[in-house]
UniProtKB/TrEMBL annotation:
It comes from Alcaligenes endophyticus. The keyword Hydrolase applies. This is M20 family metallopeptidase. It comes from the Bacteria. Coiled coil: none annotated. Signal peptide: none annotated. Gene3D superfamilies: 3.30.70.360, Zn peptidases (3.40.630.10).
Length: 401
């Protein structure tokens, strides 16, 4: 593994920034302190900045000194999660009910480190855009930045993303062409019947039994309608109805999630869910309201950009640090919106198994969205080196992009 010597000399400073961000987590579209810190650091290194895209987003612009050329984007997410931290080390969250439990503090710190290096090494042609994105955790900050003009104001020929990945060995990378992470979608079915005395069910229309039948029928969609070789998940996670043992209620509500790796599979599942909801309700004499919310599309890497990332990783870190055959995840990521607009690639960087956590960590595992999680600071120089090499190599290999 070859790390850039200059970066190693100020890794401790990057760590201080990372831990400061961890101690002051901010939720989606509330990243005002984080954005201000990012903006101040970028400007202190001579980086031009643009603020306000996606409400709290920050874009840094680094122009090369060797003439005009192509443009490439590097993206990091900034927001925290609405959950309580269980750790008790010095840099634990200072805000109850808010925690950097997904490593976005580390992602921001690594991209800041890359900005510092690139700002002082501008012997390249072209432009590097540093995208500090808000609201990844379920609020589609990437889509909001795009709607506010991200790719119109800052046209780029490729965009790249990175996420730490617990369980993957420290400092190793995983990447694959095609679907890397699933789409994330939620649904609600409201069944309206006619309430009655539970001892006289013939006088009412029972939405509870309708919900039971519908829940069972929906489980056949993946097993009987979808190609068996097409991965998908349909999970009913909530059923709400009733208030007393002797009352048939007026309505029942089912809620849940659908995950797929392709839009074609998603179309099929949504259509079948709607058909089953309407026809089952009709069969049981209920009215129905079906809502399906497509939240995040699948994260689909582009083949050429994926191959480029693998070359950067193998060249800089060694082939032994690259995992090509990891399975994709049913988790979701709103970097997917950027990949729908611009070619690019998303990679995972191994965060280890939690051995890096200092005394005072919680008793839970060091996994994403867990109150005992903490980003592994050993990744900081690795992530910075990756971003620097990827950006410079991409610009050098695409002079006419």
């Amino acid at each position: 593994m070859k790390l850039l010597d200059t970066i190693m000399t100020w890794t401790d400073e990057i760590q201080i920034v990372r831990r400061d961000l961890h101690a002051h987590p901010e939720l989606s579209y509330e990243e005002h302190r984080t954005a201000e810190k990012v903006n101040q650091l970028l400007q202190s290194w001579g980086v031009e900045t643009h603020r306000g895209l996606g409400i709290t987003g920050v874009v840094g612009i680094i122009r090369g000194e060797c003439g005009t050329g192509p443009a490439v984007g590097l993206r990091a997410d900034m927001d925290a999660l609405p959950m309580q931290e269980l750790n008790d080390f010095e840099h634990k969250s200072r805000h109850a009910g808010k925690m950097h439990a997904c490593g976005h503090d580390g992602h921001t710190a690594m991209l800041l480190g890359a900005a510092r290096y690139l700002a002082s090494h501008r012997n390249f042609a072209g432009t590097i855009y540093l995208i500090f994105q808000p609201a990844e955790e379920g609020h589609a900050g990437a889509r909001k930045m795009i709607e506010d003009g991200l790719f119109k104001l800052f046209p780029m020929q490729a965009v790249f993303g990175l996420h730490n990945w617990p369980g993957l060995p420290v400092g190793s990378f995983a990447v694959m062409p095609g679907a890397m992470m699933a789409s994330s979608n939620s649904f609600q079915v409201r069944l309206v019947g006619k309430g009655a005395h539970a001892g006289m069910p013939n006088l009412g229309v029972d939405p509870v039994m309708t919900a039971v039948q519908l829940a069972q029928s929906m489980q056949t969609i993946v097993s009987r309608n979808l190609d068996p070789l097409e991965p998908a998940v349909l999970s009913i996670t909530q059923i709400h109805s009733g208030s007393a043992d002797n009352v048939i209620p007026n309505e029942a509500i089912l809620r849940g999630t659908v995950r797929t790796f392709s839009l074609e599979a998603l179309d099929l599942i949504e259509n079948r869910m709607r058909e089953l909801s309407e026809n089952t309700a009709a069969a049981f004499q209920c009215d129905v309201e079906f809502e399906f919310d497509r939240r995040y599309p699948p994260t689909i890497n582009h083949p050429r950009e994926t191959e480029f990332c693998t070359q950067v990783i193998e060249k800089q870190f060694g082939a032994e640090y690259l995992h090509r055959n990891l399975r994709p995840s049913m988790g979701a990521e709103d970097f997917s919106f950027m990949l729908l607009e611009v070619p690019g690639c998303y990679v995972w960087l191994g965060n280890g198994d939690g051995d890096h956590r200092s005394a005072g960590h919680g008793l839970g595992p060091c996994t994403l969205h867990n109150g005992s999680y903490d980003f592994n600071d050993a990744l900081l120089p690795i992530g910075v080196t990756y971003w620097v090499r990827l950006a410079l190599d991409w610009l050098a290999q695409h002079p006419k992009a």
